[in-house]
Specification:
- It is a single chain.
- The model has no long low-confidence stretch (mean pLDDT 92).
- The protein is α/β, with parallel strands linked by helices.
- It has a 4-stranded parallel beta sheet with strand order 5-4-3-9. It has a 3-stranded antiparallel beta sheet with strand order 6-7-8, with no helix packed on it.
- It is globular.
- The chain has helices at 30-33, 40-54, 72-90, 114-127, 225-244, 279-296, 299-316, and strands spanning 13-16, 20-22, 63-68, 97-102, 130-132, 137-140, 144-147, 151-154, 157-160, 164-166, 177-178, 181-183, 202-205, 210-211, 258-261, 267-271, 274-276.
- It folds into 3 domains: 13-20 and 166-244, FAD/NAD(P)-binding domain (3-Layer(bba) Sandwich), CATH 3.50.50; 24-162, FAD/NAD(P)-binding domain, CATH 3.50.50; 258-316, no CATH class.
- Helix 3 (72-90) runs parallel beside helix 4 and helix 6 (279-296) packs antiparallel against helix 7 (299-316).
- This is NADH:ubiquinone reductase (non-electrogenic).
Length: 320
């Protein structure tokens, strides 16, 4: 494996898990004019910019925040912002704020269960979030968004949550690719472009870098945390099995449960055919988070971190 600085590392087994990056789809002005929400620093940047503009004397009109992309990130963010603005108003902060959530798909959360979509839409409308679907962004100017059909409207802050693409390194590697990443076998080994290519060892690809099509459902495995964790387990197991001469394990996707928080102590949980929402969904969300922490660290530390976060959330957030 050769690095840009000229150094190299030999390997017998390589697991490629470099994740993904924001996909701007080549939309003019988008990357330069928008915020993204990928980490804690991004969240602080969004918060500080909103506060700076709210307190600026230049902004005496209705303050418009547009969130492009109505997937889980866009839905959760729009709800949380609405709750935060309610708290600001209670504290006496003068702000007339409008939040618009838009997406090119026919509905929000377009790849999710219809009941989940219905509950999320109802919750967002309760908060007063404007939802625009079938709205394809074509161009971003300094304070204007242009949608397909030459529809234009103003924004003060634009947040892009419209999708991801595989790490750029996937495009120069000698493997079969799709728009989602590197195509893999059932064992999660990368599929070679040319089977005569000689590699230094076995190469596995997991997470957002991998494209795995479920033969049972004929659909791609979603780019979510839970499938990525399962893929990591299978890939690691196959490295050990290969070293010890045992048959490799096959990755078997499942109907993964998921959680979509929608402001305050309200979440929508899908487990199998069951959809649970409200405060019960929020409680399940907390238990799922605890389970994840326990899976990656000692029990005592996991409980301490989880409990600390729970106490902080309860103190700083009203009952939704």
């Amino acid at each position: 494996m050769q690095f840009v600085n000229g150094s190299s590392v030999s390997y017998s087994h390589l697991i490629f898990a470099l994740g993904a990056k924001t996909n701007y789809f080549g939309i003019e002005g988008l990357e330069k004019k928008s915020f993204t929400l990928k980490n804690f620093t991004d969240a602080l940047d969004i918060r500080d910019t909103i506060l700076d503009k709210i307190y600026s004397t230049k902004y005496n009109h209705q303050f418009s925040i547009v969130i492009c992309g109505a997937g889980p990130t866009g839905v959760e963010l729009s709800a949380e912002l609405k709750e935060w603005f309610s708290e600001l108003k209670k504290e006496g902060t003068p702000c007339d704020i409008k939040i618009t959530l838009l997406d090119a798909s026919p509905s929000i959360l377009s790849k999710f269960d219809k009941e989940v979509i219905r509950k999320a839409e109802k919750r967002l409308k309760k908060f007063g979030v404007d939802i625009l679907t079938k709205s394809l962004v074509e161009k971003i100017a300094r304070d204007k968004i242009t949608l397909k059909g030459d529809i234009r409207f103003r924004y003060d802050i634009l947040i892009w949550a419209g999708g991801i693409e595989a790490n750029a390194l996937t495009q120069i590697l000698p493997f079969q690719k799709s728009g989602r990443g590197i195509e893999v076998e059932k064992t999660l080994e990368a599929k070679l472009l040319d089977k005569s290519t000689k590699l230094g060892g076995k190469v596995y690809v997991i997470g957002d870098s991998a494209t795995f099509k479920d033969s049972r459902t004929r659909s791609f495995v979603p780019q979510m945390a839970r499938p990525a964790i399962s893929e990591g387990t299978v890939a690691a197991d196959n490295v050990i099995r290969n070293i010890s001469g045992k048959p490799k394990r096959v990755f078997l996707p499942m109907d993964y449960p998921y959680v979509i928080p929608v402001g305050g102590k309200y979440a929508i949980v899908k487990i199998g055919s069951f959809v649970i929402s409200g405060i019960l969904g929020w409680i399940l969300k907390g238990l799922i988070e605890l389970g994840y922490l326990i899976s990656i660290m000692p029990l005592g530390r996991a409980l301490k971190i989880w409990y600390g976060g729970l106490v902080m959330f309860i103190k700083n957030d009203r009952l939704g």
